[in-house]
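Annual report, structural modelling task.

Input specification for the alpha-methylisocitric acid complex:
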Amino acid sequence: MFKTNGEADLASKAELIKQAKAYEEDTLAVKPSGQAFDNSVPSPGWLLLNHVKEFLNQPVFGATKLRKMLLETNELIVCPGVYDGLSARTAMELGFSALYMTGAGTTASRLGQPDLAIAQLHEMRENAEMIANLDPFGPPLIADMDTGYGGPIMAARTVEQYIRAGVAGAHLEDQVLTKRCGHLSGKKVVERDEYISRIRAAHAARVRMKSDFVLIARTDALQQHGYDECIARLRMARDEGADVGLCEGFTSKEQAAQAVKDLAPWPLLLNSVENGKSPTITVDEARAMGFRIIIFSFATLAPAYLAIKETLQRLKTEGIVGTPKNVTPVTLFEVCGLKHSMAVDMNAGGASFKDGV
Ligand SMILES: C[C@](O)(C(=O)O)[C@H](CC(=O)O)C(=O)O
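The model returned the following structure:
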């Protein structure tokens, strides 16, 4: 197929173009109403295109990496929630294969505010872009996109901006625009039609951008309308082209396991929030239930708060910060890519580090 002689080359190009068209038709086309998408199996065209990209050694975008993990493996993708550069770098240091940018954490760390629809598209996109690009060869980033920050037009705009920012996938929910954290009481969701128009617009934006961006449909309808309504909403979202489902705030482990069964083979994401509205579900339990992605939205924010508070208390009472001796400024800068920066400078003939750091 990749021979360089004339005719074989032309034939392979024609085949490639045919497969690329098939990819668009199978995977990216906006289907006439009444027809459902099935994104749970890779189309032959998509597989072929990725083989070609690999063969040509092209850089793989985060969205493609994430989609490949979903389609080509059965693994549970474990994503620690990160909210800033250092928490993301720490997760990368430990080798997590994907990351999750929490909206609650972004709102708390960047704005010092609770998760109440206060962070808007530009703040979320800016944070996500920074995290997604810390290492262009690093783990794909799933981000929170809340309600899409408006009607269908804003949902589409958010997807476009997230794709350009290098975000691999994001979850879009059915709460009213004045939303709140999924693990608080008093949530309100919009009508099905309004939710589905958000999903449709988001999916159409991915199609327009010809991106592998993974659209995760989230429903918060459990509190207000019960389990069956959640399953109905997620089925509708799936049929409109959403790639993954997320039912927020399961009230029991049995309910979580049931949702996986009810929506199989469509992949589901589990948001594991300790001390929230749901029982704590471990990675092993989620894997056994058949979830495909698990996010731990508060994995770094809550411990950071505790560590900062404990340290500041010590500073207040003892007049000292008390950082362990092995944590030097250089240690922290190394977590943040110091060695890479030094190599870039030295390889370019720069002299900034001739006397070390
Ligand atoms: C997943 C979530 O959207 C987030 O921002 O991390 C939050 C997490 C939380 O606040 O508990 C959510 O609404 O569940």
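The longest helix spans residues 6-28.
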